[in-house]
Amino acid sequence: MSSDPKPEPAPRRPVWSLAFRISAWYVVAFVASLAALISFAIPTVRAAFARADTVVLESQVDRHVAVLSTGLPAYRTAVEGALALGNPEVPVRVRDARGTTLYAHGDLTASRLTTERTTGELHVEIGATESPWPAVVGELRTGALVLALGAIALAVLGGYALTRRGLRPVRELAAAVQDVTRAGELSRRVPERGTTDELDQLSALFNRMLARNQELVAGMRDALDNVAHDLRTPLTRLRGTAELALGAELPVAREALAVCIEESDQVLRMLRTLMDISEAETGILRLERAPVSLGKLAADAVDLYDHVAQEAGVALTVARTAPAMIDADPVRIRQAIANLVDNALKYTPRGGAVTLGVDATSTEAIVHVTDTGEGIDSAAIPRIWDRLYRAEPSRSKPGLGLGLSLVRAIVVAHGGRVAVDSTPGRGSTFTLALPLRVTGELDGSGARAAAPRP
Amino acid sequence: MRLALIEDDERIGEFVHNGLAQDGHVVDWVRTGDDGLALLLATHYDAAVIDVMLPGKSGLDVIRGARARKLTTPIIVLSARDSVDDRIAGLEAGADDYLTKPFSFAELLARVHALVRRASTAAEPFVLRFADVTLDLRTRRVERAGGAIQLQAKEFTLLEYLLRNAERVLSKTMILEHVWEYGFDPQTNVVDVLVSRLRAKIDRDYPRKLIHTLRGAGYVLRSEA
Questions:
Q1: Which phi and psi angles does A200 have, rounded to 5°?
Q2: DSSP 8-state class, residue B136
Q3: What is the pLDDT of residues A99-110, one digit of tens each?
Q4: Is B137 helix (H, G, I), strand (E, B) or coil?
Q5: Per-residue pLDDT at A449 exceeds 60
Q6: Around Cβ B58, how many Cβ atoms within 10 Å?
Q7: For residues A398 and B74, what is the distance between their CA atoms, to the nearest angstrom?
Q8: CB B185 to CB A288 under 8 A?
Q9: Closest alpha carbon to A243 in B46, B109, B172
Q10: Could you say which of A131, A159, B104, B204 is the most buried, measured as most Cβ atoms within 10 Å of its Cβ?
Q11: How confident is the model at residue A452, as a pLDDT?
């Protein structure tokens, strides 16, 4: 049985900032294309080197065949002579048609690459043992790896820095919205860079919207001010004229004038409360926010009603005070708590108790005002916050029927919420929850202002 | 006292003028900001009552003009707006007090007297007396006709406030501001309850009643009804 009117959608908490996600995707794409490039380039280079090796070997075997055609002894002398001159060793094997080895030098089986040729009766095979290319490919691979690691590091840092820089207008936009909605700074604007890119255009459009909003709000405020002024001026004349005439001798006239004054005061109070509610609900109520302890404000309300509770024979106490700092207009929040206490005392019979409790969750500072009064009928609960609504039994009690709507309007204007829980015959608990004071600013790196969650 | 009144509304000006005159003051009343500033600069006044919304130069402009010329006359601003920033704007312009329309004339009178008294530098007495009531600020002892009276903290503060303003009407708003430092009207009977508790201790057992209720105005400490 609790009412929770107008629940506001809870803003989602971004786990990773947009700048982080964009740069992460950028790095992933960069690494993937770098890997593809390297895994294509190295086998290609290796294949090209292998082809070059083959060409060299083929031209070599042609020379061997040419020398061999001058006879085996001459060939042997040429091969060993070349070796003696310090030429790189080339494994060779010369066989006759029957396959008998006539001459062999070096180990053909250890060669990377072999080729063969037949000239007349003789069959010659030569191989290539060492090649400079594998070393070159290895160096290439190491070099590519080092360069790739460097490029990735640059991509990670540069990408993050660039996206953060690029998204700065978005963060400024978010900060401006926060100032406008939370602090009511209607004159706040987003800085424009004049770069005429998409984000700058967005900032410009946003500023135009903010300016329009400011005009509308100023118009609304002026309209309300004019209404107030136009109602207050005749009330001032009425009240003043009656008060000055109070000195009259006739007791009947004095009584009539006193009634005029009291009634005009009543009209004024209603006007003032309705104005406050309208201003709070349209978001133009000026809040002089300051860091305050909710426990202190609850204690103030108890102090204000201390002797009223004594007279009514009701125990008025603060049961517990959790440390809970809020960013709020102390006058307004004190007024909201005082209204709840006033209401609770009004409906609690002699011998009962009205107990305040201040609690804090990770996001909210909460005041509970619990009474042992008559309770509220469950059918009436959703309507008790409405303007001028009063549950039938309370028609006899004094009051304007505006107190609770003002409480809700003030609390909602602060980004908080109100709730009530009641058991008829046993009592009610009114709850007033406000966002805990935020110490860090919105910085776009994932931390976000603690927002009210219904 | 000699007082200046700058108010363009005829009816409001009339009752404020007549009320201040009835209280025994000489009142010069003008209807525009320009006349008002000229008046303030030409003559010495003990206090000035200035409406904010005036034709031509606004009330706040008049105050700024006067303060810029080193005029120290205590000034009360009257305004039909009662938001906190209007109040702040008034005080920043150099006003000493702020009253929202519609106001109780008795409250205006009490505030004028309070301002003039604040401006004069008389020594504060330690013992406040009225009729057969005495209140000692040092020992916090309260007596009536020689008999001690026990008061709670808030009752003591209220009695002290009434004694300091004896014979002058104090509105509920003024009492709220003074006793609890509450800047708003909580629309409750807290003031009435505190006054009736004080009355039970100060007046109930004595034939001569001192704390009187003035309907539509507030409370006043005086020796006859």
A1: -65, -40
A2: E
A3: 888 888 877 777
A4: coil
A5: no
A6: 16
A7: 39
A8: no
A9: B109
A10: B104
A11: 41
- For residue A86, pLDDT beyond 90: no
What the block records as the tokens of A176 is 């401006």
For the record, the structure tokens of B161 come out as: 């406030």
Is A176 within 8 Å of A210 (Cβ atoms)?
Answer: yes
- A139 close to A151: Cβ distance less than 8 angstroms: no
Token match 């191989």: residue? A127
Nearest by CB to residue A261, choosing from B85, B188, B215, is B215
In whole angstroms, give the CA distance from residue A78 to residue A65. 12
First-last CA distance in chain B? 26
A414 contacts chain B (CB < 8 A)? no
Average pLDDT over residues A43-58: 86
B65 to chain A nearest CA, in Å? 25
Q: What residue in A sits closest to B172 (Cα-Cα)? A: A265
Check B85 against A265: CB less than 8 A apart: no
Q: How far is CA A420 from CA A9, A322, A375, A429, in A?
A: 20, 20, 10, 6
Question: What is the DSSP pairing of strand B75-79 with strand A427-435?
Answer: unpaired
Q: pLDDT digits over A133-182, tens only?
A: 778 888 888 888 898 899 888 888 888 888 888 888 888 888 888 887 77
Q: Name the strands in the sheet holding B26-30, side by side, starting at the edge strand that comes first in the sequence.
A: B26-30, B2-6, B47-51, B75-79, B97-100
Instruction: Determine the residue among A235, A297, A302, A307 to mutate to test chain B binding: the one whose Cβ has the most chain B Cβ atoms within 10 Å.
Output: A307
What residues of chain A lie within 8 A of the CB of B102, using their CB? Answer: 232, 235-236, 238-240, 264, 268
Whether the per-residue pLDDT at A1 is higher than 60: the answer is no
Strand partners for B75? B48
Band of residue A355 on the pLDDT scale cut at 50, 70, 90: very high
Helix-strand-coil split of chain A, %, nearest 5: 55, 15, 30
- Interval B88-119: pLDDT, tens: 788 888 999 888 888 888 889 888 988 888 77
- What DSSP string describes A111-159? -SEEEEEEETTEEEEEEE---SHHHHHHHHHHHHHHHHHHHHHHHHHHH
- Residue A397 pLDDT > 60: no
| DSSP secondary structure of A387-406 | TT---GGGGGS---S-HHHH
* Contact check, Cβ <8 Å, B19/A240: yes
Amino acid, res. B177: E
| List of chain A residues whose C-beta atoms are within 8 Å of the C-beta of residue B106 | 243
CA angle A267, A272, A273 (to 5 degrees): 100
Strand B211-214 relative to strand B133-136, pairing = unpaired
Q: Which residues pair with A123 in a beta bridge?
A: A95, A118
pLDDT at residue B7 greater than cutoff 90: yes
Residue B24 carries which DSSP code? Answer: T
CA A204, A205, A210, A216 dihedral sign is positive
Query: How confident is the model at residue A316, as a pLDDT?
Result: 94
Name the residue among B153, B104, B63, B69 with its Cα closest to residue A235.
Answer: B104
Q: Determine how β-strand A353-360 pairs with β-strand A315-321.
A: parallel
b/e map A363-385, b = 16+ CB within 10 Å: bbbbbbbbbbbbbbeeebbeebb
ipTM, 2 dp: 0.72
Which of A230, A277, A304, A340 is the mutation pick for testing B, counting most B CBs within 10 A? A304
